[in-house]
Structures are given as C-alpha cells and as structure tokens.
Design goal:
285 residues; alpha/beta; Arc Repressor Mutant, subunit A; Rossmann fold; 2 domains; seven-stranded parallel beta sheet; 10 helices; globular; transcription; transcription regulation; Tscrpt_reg_HTH_DeoR_CS
C-alpha cells in the first residue's frame, strides 16, 4: 500500500488505485482508513479538508471513517478533524519533510501576507518551519533589501540567492533529519540581536498558548521572540488544536497572528478578544 507521501494534496486521484486499463478503482473502506492512520503517524493531526485534498473522497465519507477509528480507540476526534491519541500527541515529533504536504495553498497565502508587510531594509528573523518558508519565498519575490536572520538551513540557502538580502545563519545543533538549528549556543547568539520583526510558527495554538513538542525547539522560539521588536505568528487553521508538550509563550506576547479563513469561529473570536492584530488570508475556493 502506498504511503501518504505518495499522494500529495494536489493529486485528486489519491483516493483510489489504478487498474490495468487505466481506470481508477476507489479504495476500500479498510484501505482508506489505513491511509488515514498512516497520514496521522506522519503529521500527528489533520483536518477533514486536508484529508479531503489528500484522499480525494467526500467529507461525509471521511467523517464516518474518523468516527469509526475513534470508536476503535485508534485516534481522537477533534472539531473538524482528528489527531493521534492524546497521550501520544503531546510529545509527537512530526516528520520534518511532511509539514509541506498539509495546507499548501493556505501556507502560501499566509506567507505572502507576511512578506507584503515587510519594509525595505528591515531586519527580519525567519523562524524555522514550512509556513515561514513560504514567507521567505514571498519576500524573495518582492526583491527588497533586508537583513535576514534564521535558524533554518533551507531558508538561509533560499534567501542567500538574493543580492538584496544579507543573511545571518544562527549556529547551534542541527536537529536530526531537519533543517532546524537549535541549542544553547543559538540562544546565546539570539541575546545579542535586536531585530525589527520575527516571523514565527508553532506546532499548536491552544486556548491562547503556543506549544511545541520538544524542549529545545520551545527554548529556541522563546529566544527568537526576545530578539525581536515585533512578533508575528504565522499558522494555518489546522494549528488551532490540542496543546503539545512544551509551552513556548502566550498569544498576549505577540503583536499579530496571520492565519487563513479555515479557522473556526470560536478560535477567531478568541483571537480578536486579545490586544493583537488578526490578519486572515482568504483561501477558500
């Protein structure tokens, strides 16, 4: 059986197998549910819309699949999606290459809004992560002069291709299988920085708290927050979910949250009740 990596969200025929005559045979319910479980093992949590894009089947069918898996004790249902059983999810380490598979249109739109708000010659910290990477791509397209600081090797290499952008790569310990640099030496370097803007991501946003699955990533994000005058959180709607193991900060420590229009009404209402700017990227088709 193929894994979720074999059928990215842009592949509409992911919900079936191809017969010898070229026709697509829909997956059996058991096969479809196994795909969902495999997907969750890579990502930790997923929304119905993300599964709909990945598997190419209806939301009503997926709801029945998720309800069945929850009844079997395999997953926990959330509003609009599912996640690994709670005791596993809080310390779940996502596959470093898997994040870009989820919500690509939403991440691109969020990144574009974040980049559009940057001013020429600002100093900008680009946190590690797939949504911040989209902001870096959008900033590169704008072709404006910037001083960029990052702890992400992919972002550093991308921005280093511009003659307009001066890139400072923070040193430390490279996380296994990831472009992310963390560690005590990075935290100490961050103390010497006073940047204009931080563009950061988070594993989960829950009841006004940002959280991560590991202590070193949480410590890195706290250090980057302390190094910036303005802090902008870039998170797609699926990140509003049960909290992970390590608290990073509260939303009250931020200045702006940029998310997409898939955010639930309750989560948006909680954001707007805070004294920060809320920017919604319009992605619904």
């Amino acid at each position: 059986m193929s894994t979720p990596a074999d059928f990215p969200a842009s592949t509409p025929l992911a919900g079936g197998t191809t017969a010898t005559d070229g026709t697509v045979v829909p997956l059996l319910p058991a096969q479809r549910r196994q795909h969902i479980v495999d997907f969750l093992r890579r990502h930790g949590a997923v929304t119905l819309q993300q599964l709909e894009q990945a598997l190419g089947v209806s939301v009503s069918t997926l709801r029945r699949d998720l309800d069945g898996l929850a009844a079997e004790g395999v997953i926990d249902r959330t509003h609009g999606g599912a996640l690994l059983r709670q005791q596993e999810y809080s310390t779940f380490e996502p596959d470093a290459g898997a994040a870009a598979e989820l919500s690509p249109l939403e991440k691109e739109a969020i990144g574009r809004l974040a980049a559009d708000a940057l001013l020429p010659r600002q100093s900008v910290i680009f946190d590690s992560g797939s949504t911040v990477l989209e902001a870096a791509r959008a900033a590169l397209r704008r072709n404006i002069p910037l001083i960029a600081v990052t702890n992400d090797l992919t972002i550093a290499q991308l921005l280093g291709g511009s003659a307009q952008i001066q890139v400072h790569l923070l040193g430390g310990v490279l996380r296994p299988g990831s472009p992310t640099v963390t560690g005590q030496s990075l935290v100490e370097q961050a103390r010497t920085i006073c940047a204009d803007v931080l563009l950061m991501g988070a594993h989960a946003v829950t009841d006004g708290v940002l959280s991560e699955t590991s202590a070193e990533v949480a410590a890195t994000k706290r250090a980057l927050m302390a190094a910036a005058t303005t802090r902008r959180l870039l998170v797609d709607a699926s990140k509003f979910r049960p909290r992970a193991f390590m608290q990073v900060a509260t939303l009250g420590e931020l200045h702006e949250v940029i998310t997409d229009d898939g955010i639930g009404a309750a989560d948006e209402e909680r954001l707007r009740a805070l004294s920060l700017q809320v920017t919604i990227a319009r992605c619904r088709r």
